[in-house]
Structure formats: structure tokens, C-alpha cells
Specification:
Largest sheet of chain A: 5 strands, mixed
Strand order of the largest sheet of chain A: 2-8-7-4-5
Number of strands of chain B: 30
Number of helices of chain B: 4
Structural class of chain B: alpha+beta
Shape of chain B: elongated
Strand content of chain B: 35-45%
CATH topology of the largest domain in chain B: Neuraminidase
Number of helices of chain A: 5
Helix content of chain B: 10-25%
Order of helices and strands of chain A: HEEEEEEEEHEHEHEHE
CATH class of the largest domain in chain B: Mainly Beta
CATH superfamily of the largest domain in chain A: OmpA-like domain
Radius of gyration of chain B: 23 Å
Shape of chain A: elongated
CATH topology of the largest domain in chain A: 60s Ribosomal Protein L30, Chain: A
Oligomer: heterodimer
């Protein structure tokens, strides 16, 4: 019985200590909640920790390294997920195998601060050999097949509004895309050679976006569409007449391989 | 930046004066809407340049002296503030030092010069040494205005550099304290092999060489105010993105890619921000980021293309740009926080603004009768920002585009194609009143950008 009594008296003692502690701290909390001034000037004000973390570069290819650089203040314990316990300030070179969030937690007497940086790792994807023929799932089909069914949209000069013929072209493109869900499309915006290069690139962007908006309105998912403006930097036709200029004012649909 | 700021404060009056003079000049001839209505009577200084005297018998002296003489004469002739004595009217003597100078020969007819530049040049002990003097020909008692000595490695580049430096000293003294531009650079787009790369040349068209070798289409080079970086727009897999190149490191430096088409960067005069056109939100708008491409914020918000921003280099507080919000592209001005939008042009097709160093004028390309089958061409115009009065600087020479002011505000470089074909573009320079046009490059050069200093 004697050992048991000793153990139980220890438990009682510890319980009492815990109770006392919690009573004291509870009282402390209460008084600070009621009247912070009653605590007097002796209570130290603990500054909350600060934390920041950067990575250079933010994106790497697989196998390359990234330099992490972090700074904290007023922290007693600093950890980085995936790295572990670290110094308050420091740098470290890491080589993550895939895209990683480096999450820094700085704990101090004044609380906890967190900082985060994401490093993107570009993992090379082995090129897949397209199947020789047939319209298997995931196959976009041939360029010839695509261009037979999808016509480019043409525009008036200095305009990015879809004309009736362009609306017909985008509607046709939308229905073809609905029937072939594996196809992704890049929409190129083009302008004729008149006017200025910078403005024409912006205009080409608006033309390609007009076509993109029409396709999206017809139900094509936006992640299947990519927009690039070429302005007047890539011309379909280089003569100086209206026929040629009209050729160049277009939104071009092509397979986004 | 310091020297620029000082330059502006000390020299603004003269700069304005000379430009107003230039403007009044052409206004009297061509337009009824002149800026001042007065010819302020500022006259150009008649200056003669003697061929320098060879100071050694070294074999390199003769070709280097030839380069030096040609460059010095050309710098002064093109400065825009001199009436230069043609070589055929100048005395056939080469005074190499002040005691060999007979001012009477130069101040009397036919040379009738007010100022004479002369000196000696030669390769001595493996160094190219030049002594240059500028004398006031009408002041026989104390004629010396300037005496300079230069010593460089003997090379063609050094000979040109010394000539540029001596010319800039003369222009600074006689041009009202405005620093000369003979040591400035022009960045431009070189068209070749289906690609467009960024190139650099001296202000007079010499020393043309490639900066980038990206193998794609790069456009709109803009050099930072301290000549340390180039910003431009380059075509990649996801369209055009802003790129930056360090002229100090000789390599590309990171500028993060974002969505959409990103075009036409412009440096704030403090060198800390870049304004550019970005369509990441689906419509091309003007954005401002810091020079590393971070903290981007949008400052326009209107349907239609917004491109080609340019800061007021005097204050940094305003941005001029091109917007198609009402149809054809027009020239607008706003405060650099996006407020106070003011339309500047009343019609036509306006593009490619460049703001004069003193903040008073905008140069831009304008086709005032743009439309299907409409006559008229795209020419270079200058508009006074305060009054919206404009003058036309080019006429009937084919399509002109991309004007860019020289740092002294006396010159404008621009691109021109006589037959309208894009690959026939050449880079030209002219005085800001439209006179003294001359080509700096052959065909296949476009989008010039004059350095800030």
C-alpha cells in the first residue's frame, strides 16, 4: 500500500500545482481583461515575432537549386516545413523534387508569425508518341482535319468586333470543339501592316480575345483556349492592297499541341 | 540622374528658347497655329573647324586623324546650334597650337567665323594624344574659350570618342550650358532573317552592333535613365512578354512573365518603375511595376487597346499614352496614378508618343486622314502639351513612326519607310523643327530609342 499511497499523494500534489497554476493564470487573464492598468508598469510588453522568407529563383527546372533566404525577429524557435529547425536568420540552398511551399513558422514570447514562399519545379514530361491514326481519346486529330472544320475569324480595319461572318466562324469552331473535347486551341490575333506595331499588337490581342469570349460564351472551357497576339509581326500576305490587308486582320484558330 | 536634374534646371530656359525658335521658324512657313508668334531672334553661331595638325609621324596618325576630323566636323554640323563654315571656305591651314593660330584668316571673309576649333592629334608612345582648342575669332586680345587634352588607346573607336567629347565640350560652352549629345546612344530594332533583335549604335549612326541574340521577335527597346538596363518586349511561347537586359552585366535579367500580351515598356525618370501595356486582365491596359517586374498595378480601366505609355521625363508625374477607347487610336495624357485623363488629338490615327526632356512637348506619329482609301500618310508631329497646338515635322516621305527625343531636346530620331514596306524601315534623325533630316542606318532598322544621357 505504501508505494500506492506515495503515487497517489504525488498525483494529488501535481493536481494541486496544476490547479494553482491555472488559477493564477486564469486570475491573471481576468485582471488583464478587466483593467490592464492595474498590472502596473513592471509587466514586460513582448514584441510579436516577425518573419519573412524569399526564394531565388522562384521557378526552377528539376535538379536545379534554389536559395532560400529568411529573416525573423523576436523569435525563439524558427522552423521551416521540410527543412526543420533553423537559425533565426539564414540562407539555405535546396533542391526540391517537385513544387514546394516553404512554410516558415517563427515562435516567440509574443506569439507566432508565419511566412510562405512557393518554389515551382518544372518537371520535364517525356514526349508521348501520338498514335498513328484514329481518333483516340486525348488525340487532337490532324491539322488538316481541324482547318477543314474550323475557319478563322476576320475583322474590319481597326476593329475587334465580331462581324456576322466572324460570328458564324466562331460558332462553327465552338461546335467542332464541343464534338472534340480533346482539342485545345491557340487563338492568334493578327493585324494588317498599316498603323503602328505596338498598337497593332494590342489590337490583335483584342481580336483574339473577342474570338475567345465568343467560344467561351458557346460553352468551350477557358482552359482549352490560349491567346497570343502577333499584331503585324507575322503576316499572311505582304502586298499593299485591301484584299491582302483583310487576310491579315484575323483571329486564327490552330491546334495547341 | 543628378547630372540630368542639374541640366534641366540650369539650361531649361535656353532649351525652351532654342526649341521655340525652331518652332516659330517652321510655324511661320507652314502653319498658322504657331507656339509663340514671335521669332525670338536667337541666331546660330558661325563656327569653323580646322583639320587637326598631325603631331607625330606614326603610321596610325593619318587614318585616326581622318576619323577624328570627320567626326568632329559632323558632330558640330549636326548639333543644331551652329552655322558651320564649310571646308571649302575655310583657310587651308592646320594650326596645331595657339601660337600657330592666325585669327585674322578665320574671322575675315570668306570664312567669317565667330569661333574656331583647332588643335593637334597624333599617336605618341603608343597613345593617341589630342590637344583641342576653341578660340573666339572676334576677340583678338583674349581669344581662348577652351583648351582640352585627351589621351586614349589608339583605335578608331578612341578617335571617334575623343572627337565626341571635344564636340560636347564646345556645344556645352556655346549652347547655353546644355550638355551635347555626341556621346549618347540610340537603341533600336534590327530586322533580319524573320527575327527582330535589339541593337545599339552611336547617336550619329556609327558603331552599329547587336545587343540581343534571342532568335525571336523583340520590340520597343527602352534604355533606363542611367543607361544600365534595357527593357523591351519579346515574343515567346505565350506571346509577348516584357524582358530586361543588363547593359552592365551583358545578359538578360529576370522580369517575371504574366498572362496576356505585354508590350511597350517605359522607364520612369527616377529609374525605379516601368509602365507598360499588359492584357493580363483580358484587355490591354497600362500597368506600372517596379524595375524587377514586381508590385504591378493597373492604372487604366477602359475597354479597348491602351499601349505605348511614356513618362513626362521632367516630372515623372504624368504619362502620355495611346488609347483606342473611342475607336481609332488617339493620344492621351494622365497623371501617373491614372487620374486626370485628357485626350490630346482630335482624330486620325495617333501612335508612338515620346515626351520631350523639358516636359513641354510630345512628339508622336499621326495619320490625320486614316481610313480605307483615305489619302494622307503617317507623319511625325510635335504638340505642345499645355495648348495642344501642333506642328508637322515630316511631309510626303512615306510612313514615319517611333519618334524619340534626344536628351538635349534639339533632335528627334524616328523610323521611316519610303515605300511603306515594313522591312524597308530606316532610322533617321532631324532637328526638332523638322530640318536637317538624315538617315542613320540602312533598311531593316526600326523603333529607335534615344538614351537619356
Amino acid at each position: 500500500m505504501s508505494p500506492t499511497r506515495t503515487t497517489s499523494s504525488k498525483v494529488i500534489l501535481m493536481t494541486a500545482v496544476v490547479l494553482t497554476l491555472s488559477f493564477v493564470s486564469g486570475c491573471h487573464k481576468k485582471s488583464s481583461g478587466v483593467d490592464p492598468n492595474s498590472l502596473g508598469p513592471t509587466t514586460p510588453t513582448v514584441a510579436p515575432p516577425t518573419a519573412s522568407i524569399t526564394a531565388d529563383p522562384l521557378a526552377i527546372d528539376l535538379g536545379q537549386t534554389v536559395v532560400l533566404n529568411w529573416r525573423t525577429q523576436n523569435a525563439t524557435s524558427v522552423t521551416i516545413d521540410g527543412v526543420g529547425q533553423v537559425n533565426a536568420n539564414g540562407t539555405q540552398t535546396v533542391s526540391p523534387a517537385n513544387s514546394t511551399n516553404f512554410h516558415l513558422t517563427a515562435k516567440g514570447d509574443g506569439g507566432t508569425a508565419e511566412a510562405n514562399v512557393r518554389v515551382t519545379v518544372r518537371v520535364p514530361v517525356a514526349p508521348t508518341v501520338p498514335p498513328p491514326s484514329g481518333n483516340l481519346p486525348g488525340d487532337m486529330g490532324s491539322d488538316e482535319e481541324f482547318h477543314k472544320n474550323v475557319q478563322d475569324a476576320f475583322f474590319d480595319y481597326d476593329s475587334y468586333d465580331l462581324r456576322p461572318d466572324a460570328q458564324a466562324a466562331t460558332a462553327q469552331a465552338a461546335s467542332y470543339l464541343a464534338a472534340h473535347p480533346a482539342i485545345r486551341v491557340v487563338i492568334g490575333g493578327y493585324a494588317d501592316e498599316r498603323g503602328s506595331a505596338e498598337y497593332n499588337l494590342a489590337l490583335g490581342e483584342n481580336r483574339a480575345n473577342a474570338a475567345r469570349t465568343a467560344l467561351m460564351a458557346a460553352g468551350v472551357a477557358p482552359n482549352r483556349l490560349r491567346v497570343i497576339s502577333y499584331g503585324k509581326e507575322k503576316q499572311f500576305c505582304t502586298e499593299q492592297n485591301e484584299t491582302c490587308w483583310q487576310e491579315n486582320r484575323r483571329a486564327q484558330f490552330s491546334l495547341d499541341r | 540622374m543628378f547630372s540630368l536634374a542639374r541640366l534641366y534646371t540650369t539650361s531649361r530656359k535656353l532649351q525652351v528658347l532654342s526649341l521655340l525658335f525652331a518652332v516659330a521658324n517652321i510655324g511661320a512657313r507652314a502653319q498658322d497655329n504657331v507656339f509663340t508668334g514671335t521669332n525670338t531672334g536667337v541666331s546660330t553661331i558661325r563656327i569653323a573647324v580646322a583639320d587637326f595638325k598631325p603631331s607625330s609621324a606614326d603610321a596610325q596618325t593619318t587614318p585616326l586623324k581622318q576619323t577624328f576630323d570627320t567626326t568632329l566636323y559632323s558632330d558640330l554640323a549636326n548639333a543644331g546650334i551652329f552655322d558651320i563654315v564649310s571646308k571649302s571656305l575655310a583657310p587651308q591651314v592646320t594650326p596645331g597650337a595657339p601660337n600657330e593660330m592666325n585669327l585674322q584668316q578665320w574671322s575675315s571673309d570668306p570664312a567669317n567665323a565667330a569661333m574656331v576649333a583647332f588643335g593637334s592629334l597624333g599617336v605618341q608612345n603608343g597613345r593617341l594624344v589630342a590637344n583641342g582648342f576653341l578660340f573666339d575669332a572676334k576677340n583678338t586680345q583674349y581669344p581662348q574659350v577652351l583648351a582640352k587634352q585627351y589621351s586614349e588607346e589608339p583605335s578608331e573607336d578612341s578617335a571617334r570618342l575623343i572627337a565626341h567629347r571635344f564636340a560636347d565640350e564646345i556645344i556645352f560652352r556655346l549652347g547655353g550650358g546644355v550638355a551635347g549629345i555626341a556621346e549618347t546612344k540610340i537603341y533600336y530594332v534590327k530586322i533580319g532573317g524573320g527575327n527582330k533583335e535589339i541593337w545599339e549604335m552611336d547617336y550619329d549612326g556609327a558603331n552599329q552592333h547587336a545587343i540581343t541574340h534571342l532568335g525571336t521577335v523583340s520590340l520597343s527597346p527602352r534604355v533606363s535613365p542611367d543607361n544600365s538596363r534595357l527593357a523591351f518586349s519579346s515574343l515567346g511561347r505565350d506571346g509577348f512578354q516584357i524582358k530586361t537586359y543588363s547593359l552592365l552585366l551583358g545578359r538578360m535579367v529576370n522580369f517575371p512573365a504574366v498572362g496576356g500580351t505585354n508590350l511597350s515598356p517605359a522607364w520612369a525618370p527616377n529609374g525605379k518603375e516601368i509602365a507598360y501595356s499588359s492584357s493580363r486582365s483580358g484587355d490591354p491596359e497600362i500597368w506600372i511595376a517596379d524595375l524587377n517586374g514586381n508590385l504591378a498595378r493597373r492604372i487604366t480601366s477602359f475597354r479597348g487597346p491602351d499601349v505605348s505609355p511614356v513618362y513626362n521625363p521632367k516630372t515623372g508625374a504624368q504619362i502620355a499614352w495611346i488609347s483606342g477607347r473611342t475607336g481609332l487610336p488617339q493620344l492621351y495624357v494622365m497623371d501617373s496614378d491614372g487620374s486626370g485623363v485628357t485626350r490630346m488629338t482630335d482624330g486620325g490615327y495617333a501612335t508612338s508618343p515620346s515626351w520631350s526632356p523639358n516636359g513641354q512637348f510630345l512628339a508622336f506619329a499621326w495619320n490625320r486622314k486614316y481610313g480605307p482609301g483615305a489619302p494622307g500618310g503617317q507623319d511625325i508631329y510635335v504638340m505642345e502639351v499645355a495648348t495642344k497646338k501642333w506642328i508637322q515635322l515630316t511631309h510626303d516621305g512615306g510612313r514615319c513612326d517611333f519618334p524619340s527625343w534626344s536628351p538635349d531636346g534639339r533632335h528627334i530620331t524616328y523610323a521611316n519607310t519610303a515605300d511603306g514596306r515594313a522591312d524597308h524601315m530606316k532610322i533617321w534623325t532631324m532637328l526638332a523643327d523638322g530640318t536637317q533630316k538624315r538617315a542613320l542606318t540602312g533598311t531593316g532598322a526600326d523603333m529607335p530609342n534615344w538614351s537619356w544621357k
